[in-house]
Design brief:
The complex is a heterodimer. By secondary structure, chain A is mostly beta strands. Chain A has two helices and 26 strands. Chain A has three domains: 109 residues, Immunoglobulin-like; 93 residues, Macroglobulin (MG2) domain (Immunoglobulin-like), CATH 2.60.40.1930; 84 residues, Immunoglobulin-like. In chain A, a hairpin with a 1-residue loop joins strand 7 and strand 8. Chain A starts with a helix and ends with a strand. By secondary structure, chain B is of the alpha+beta class. Chain B is 40% helix and 36% strand. A five-stranded mixed β-sheet of chain B has the order 1-2-3-4-5. Chain B is globular and about 70 Å long. Chain B starts with a helix and ends with a strand. The chains are: A mainly beta, B alpha+beta. At the A-B interface, helix 1, helix 2, strand 4, strand 5 and strand 7 of A face helix 1, helix 3, strand 2, strand 3 and strand 4 of B.
Chain lengths: 299, 176
């Protein structure tokens, strides 16, 4: 029922399409018998190819491809040369020859050899000691930016600062090769490279200290208040945390509580607490908390 | 009197039929956009989140609808913002060629069966296999020079942009 409704709605165009298709079908059938077109069977992107034709007289060649649409006057019975420039994009092409009636044939152009690697690595900065935090994806392309889908061995190499490199060998599949790995224990640049034959691409991941670990503080009363500072703040692997990491100092005096946030500068965070009576001072940063200091009142 | 009633009934019936016809046409028009399905069960190494699946379906369908519009009208405008990289360059190459030669093409009755085969760990690129069926028509001026019902397989790379997924690679292959 819906078919008939749709057909009715599309009547003018449907009729035209149907009639065209029938006419073309007859033409194609006839042309198939006459073998007017023989398209290339193993065309490669960027390489010249030719279409063989039979018959005689002049005709018009149309070529419709992934990146091209051309129309050219040709002579039947001759090989029609297609330049490499006309076949840059891999994919499906339709060649149509019209001389009175039209006949057509489709053919595929395959990608060429890998000429470049698109290599994407994430993240650009990774905290140390985290599982599966670094990943990389490589896509081989030929010189005309066609994705190369044939399987190929891709080697991923990871080289931390002052350490020996490690390698992962991966076979590309469907035009993609990838890896995933954990970050190392030491902060510093991690060079990540992907290689395929003589092609290679290199990226750098900055491994940074993770969250602070084992905060320790010391303090003393001064004329202005209580000066407290941390010992060098490091993560659990011993890497100094980056400057700017916030440490929160807390001073408690009975029910009175006051807070001061201080950034780490050259490994140490410092603050002056304005308190005259005896206080208990503690510090925290991220999920780490430090020791408590008891400091007596001002005399 | 009876004749007049009969005429009125006939008019009413004609009106109803006409309305039904127009409504059906509207329904057909609404249904003429590409039909796209996505199977993300085999995506690896990362599973495709339901919201992402919906966004990819929406944007892929829209992109193919606009490919048809662009190639039918020889206008770059429908392609804006939906394609990047080679896919964008290549489609514009076809459009430029068609403009020069007066050729137009149509991708009608599209049906795309997408399968996600790779979704990057960071979620920044997805590879899809599309088994597409459509009626391809190529016209020179008003004359149809080619018409076929084609089944074409495409390898597709899509990446997320600010508010949509865009197609970076759209490469037809003989087989997956």
């Amino acid at each position: 029922m819906s078919w008939s409704i749709n057909t009715a709605c599309r009547l003018p165009s449907a009729h035209a399409t149907l009639v065209s298709a029938l006419l073309l079908g007859v033409a194609f059938g006839a042309s198939a018998q006459e073998s007017q077109l023989r398209v290339p069977s193993n065309a490669v992107a960027g390489q010249a190819a030719s279409i063989a034709t039979t018959g005689s007289g002049s005709a018009t060649l149309y070529l419709n491809g992934p990146s091209i649409s051309l129309k050219r006057d040709v002579q039947l019975g001759q090989d029609l040369d297609l330049t490499g420039k006309e076949l840059l994009a891999a994919g499906r092409y339709i060649a149509v020859i019209c001389a009175g009636s039209c006949s057509s044939a489709g053919f595929f152009v395959a990608p060429g050899k890998p000429a470049s690697l698109t290599f994407v690595v994430h993240p650009s900065r990774a905290p140390v000691g985290v599982n599966d935090v670094i990943s990389g994806v490589a896509f081989p392309f030929d010189q005309f930016h066609n994705l190369v889908l044939t399987r190929a061995p891709v080697q991923f190499q990871l080289t931390p600062k002052n350490s020996a490199p490690t390698s992962h060998n991966v076979q590309s599949r469907d035009g993609v090769a990838w890896f995933r790995t954990s970050s190392g224990k030491s902060a510093g640049p991690l060079q990540v490279s992907a290689s395929l034959n003589d092609l290679s691409a290199r990226r750098v991941v900055q491994q940074v200290a993770s969250d602070p670990c084992n905060l320790r503080i010391k303090g003393q009363r001064t004329a202005k208040g209580i000066l407290v500072e941390t010992e060098p703040v490091r993560d659990c692997s011993g890497n100094p945390v980056p400057d700017g990491t916030i440490v929160t100092f807390t001073a408690k005096n009975g029910h009175d509580v006051s807070f001061v946030d201080a950034p780490v500068k050259q490994d140490v965070a410092r603050a002056t607490l304005l308190a005259s009576g005896p206080v208990v001072v503690s510090a925290a940063s991220g999920v780490a908390s430090g020791n408590e200091l008891r400091i007596g009142g001002k005399e | 009197m009876g004749d007049r009633q009969l005429t009125r009934d006939a008019w009413n019936l004609s009106g109803t039929v006409l309305l039904y016809f127009l409504f059906s046409c509207a329904l057909f028009a609404a249904d003429s956009s590409p039909h796209v399905t996505l199977d993300a069960n085999k995506a690896n190494p990362r599973a495709v989140e339901p919201l992402t699946q919906r966004a990819i379906l929406r944007d892929y369908k829209f992109a193919w609808g606009n490919i048809d519009s662009a190639l039918a009208s020889n206008s770059h405008v429908p392609l804006n913002g939906l394609f990047a990289g080679s896919a964008n360059d290549w489609l514009k190459g076809v459009l430029d060629g068609q403009r020069q030669t007066g050729v137009t093409s149509r991708y009608l009755n599209q049906n795309h069966k997408l399968e996600a085969v790779f979704y990057a760990p960071a979620g920044d690129v997805i590879e899809l296999h599309d088994t597409a069926e459509y009626d391809l028509e190529i016209h020179d001026g008003g004359k149809a020079i080619h018409s076929e019902h084609a089944t074409v397989r495409y390898v597709v790379l899509m990446t997320p942009a600010a508010d949509r997924w865009i197609i970076r690679q759209l490469q037809a292959v003989p087989q997956f």
